[in-house]
Amino acid sequence: MSPADRFRRLRRLRRPAIRRRVRAAVAEELLGTPRSLAVVCAFTAFMFAVGVGYYTPTADEVPVALWPLYADSAVAVALGGGVLASVASAVWRGGDITADTPTSRGLAYLHTFAFVWLVQFGLWPLVSLNLAFGEYVAAPDAWIYYWGVIGTHLLFVGLALLFPAFGRTTRGALAAALGLGVVNAVVDYWVGYHPPLLYEPGLGLAAATLVIAVGSVALASRSFRRLDPE
């Protein structure tokens, strides 16, 4: 295949209909059978356990009511697990994941929150860890605390990008997700309950977190079909 042909194929991915078909095919491959869904669920459960283990040693320094905002990565994975649970019945019956997955207003909020939270905190380590790149790569366990964290968090994004194949969103869900992202940034950087880092974050990380939050909501708005088409 010539470079020109490859470029033309990539350009076709800019069409929403093409992107939907590609996303549906990937979702069907990874989530469309009980066995493949079980594998993804098992790996999601593993990532959740790792996240809980990361936040547990410092959780007693944070008010219990703020734990969902403090342990943001673990919560993102838990929301993703909730989305996977919502498609399990359709997959178990042998249905088409893109056509037979149930939809409702409550599920639209779950799909939207999970997508935004997974994308936001899947990308967040790319900024937060690289702001202190030297400290993280020089740490004794750099293969875990730098490469491992970035690698697993990018998988958050990959998981989230499957959800628009069968999920829906609403204006209310998008607005609520954006508001939650702003509240999370306030709790992290103004109140001071940010995730454990090897340095004290400043204005740069706070601003980047807000930008990522807004971008994640914008991506959700573009990726999901509306529950109530306008």
From TrEMBL:
Keyword list, A-Z: Membrane, Transmembrane, Transmembrane helix
Transmembrane segments: 37-55, 75-94, 106-124, 144-166, 173-191, 203-221
Domain of life: Archaea
InterPro entries, alphabetized: DUF1405 (IPR009845)
Protein name (Swiss-Prot/TrEMBL): DUF1405 domain-containing protein
Species of the source: Halorubrum miltondacostae
